[in-house]
């Protein structure tokens, strides 16, 4: 008998994947968590019925939430990740030689533990790396208690439901501004321009009320709704167009390149309109 996992991405669109087996299911203190083995994308983390990452395409998301920010900043030493309990973003951060400390703040400790067990190639940096500090606590509270601390903050959140709702608010972004150093910058994942148009518009408005420089950029991630995903960078000082890519070091990646650092911000017209609120 065939088994299929289906994610209802919108009221009229679903993603269905043939599964080999279910590895783990539980209700944590914060969300429903499942680890499944799919034929097309391998092992996969699902939270509250939504795909978070898979071993086949995870590199796109984790590289694109990380490297545009860390190259744009030019000298990131102290980096914070809010969410991201699977560990992929931390794995990418520590590839940068300037980074001295990478802090992960994940509210749900079970995501961390089960990612170590079932997604070891993604969670590889969460254990035994002297640069990495893993904390199981509320990211919003952590931001409120951090002032002038971080060079880069990455908001590696789930969709804006459940415990992640507050991670898209203007108050949270104001807290991030205060937690960043004077030349700091942030990146947040900001969903699909096809299915989450209002969210992209609203996030850009909120960030433009706080930061002098805001840029949205895109990447292709096949397991995420519509396959086209957005990220939004907000910076106190640096802009991607000002970076001299010819002088930068190279790191080992599968999707990100130094050319993509600037190319990803060249947006299709309909996404330009979303960013402007037109």
Automatic annotation (TrEMBL):
<feature type="binding site">
    <location>
        <position position="62"/>
    </location>
    <ligand>
        <name>spermidine</name>
    </ligand>
</feature>
<comment type="subunit">
    <text>Homodimer or homotetramer.</text>
</comment>
<dbReference type="InterPro" id="IPR001045">
    <property type="entry name" value="Spermi_synthase"/>
</dbReference>
<comment type="similarity">
    <text>Belongs to the spermidine/spermine synthase family.</text>
</comment>
<dbReference type="InterPro" id="IPR030373">
    <property type="entry name" value="PABS_CS"/>
</dbReference>
<dbReference type="GO" id="GO:0008295">
    <property type="term" value="P:spermidine biosynthetic process"/>
</dbReference>
<dbReference type="InterPro" id="IPR035246">
    <property type="entry name" value="Spermidine_synt_N"/>
</dbReference>
<keyword id="KW-0808">Transferase</keyword>
<keyword id="KW-0620">Polyamine biosynthesis</keyword>
<dbReference type="InterPro" id="IPR037163">
    <property type="entry name" value="Spermidine_synt_N_sf"/>
</dbReference>
<dbReference type="GO" id="GO:0004766">
    <property type="term" value="F:spermidine synthase activity"/>
</dbReference>
<comment type="pathway">
    <text>Amine and polyamine biosynthesis; spermidine biosynthesis; spermidine from putrescine: step 1/1.</text>
</comment>
<protein>
    <recommendedName>
        <fullName>Polyamine aminopropyltransferase</fullName>
        <ecNumber>2.5.1.16</ecNumber>
    </recommendedName>
</protein>
<dbReference type="Pfam" id="PF17284">
    <property type="entry name" value="Spermine_synt_N"/>
</dbReference>
<dbReference type="GO" id="GO:0005829">
    <property type="term" value="C:cytosol"/>
</dbReference>
<feature type="domain" description="PABS">
    <location>
        <begin position="2"/>
        <end position="236"/>
    </location>
</feature>
<comment type="function">
    <text>Catalyzes the irreversible transfer of a propylamine group from the amino donor S-adenosylmethioninamine (decarboxy-AdoMet) to putrescine (1,4-diaminobutane) to yield spermidine.</text>
</comment>
<dbReference type="InterPro" id="IPR030374">
    <property type="entry name" value="PABS"/>
</dbReference>
<feature type="binding site">
    <location>
        <position position="86"/>
    </location>
    <ligand>
        <name>spermidine</name>
    </ligand>
</feature>
<dbReference type="InterPro" id="IPR029063">
    <property type="entry name" value="SAM-dependent_MTases_sf"/>
</dbReference>
<dbReference type="Pfam" id="PF01564">
    <property type="entry name" value="Spermine_synth"/>
</dbReference>
<keyword id="KW-0745">Spermidine biosynthesis</keyword>
<feature type="binding site">
    <location>
        <position position="106"/>
    </location>
    <ligand>
        <name>S-methyl-5'-thioadenosine</name>
    </ligand>
</feature>
<feature type="binding site">
    <location>
        <position position="31"/>
    </location>
    <ligand>
        <name>S-methyl-5'-thioadenosine</name>
    </ligand>
</feature>
<feature type="binding site">
    <location>
        <position position="163"/>
    </location>
    <ligand>
        <name>S-methyl-5'-thioadenosine</name>
    </ligand>
</feature>
<feature type="active site" description="Proton acceptor">
    <location>
        <position position="156"/>
    </location>
</feature>
<feature type="binding site">
    <location>
        <begin position="138"/>
        <end position="139"/>
    </location>
    <ligand>
        <name>S-methyl-5'-thioadenosine</name>
    </ligand>
</feature>
<feature type="binding site">
    <location>
        <begin position="156"/>
        <end position="159"/>
    </location>
    <ligand>
        <name>spermidine</name>
    </ligand>
</feature>
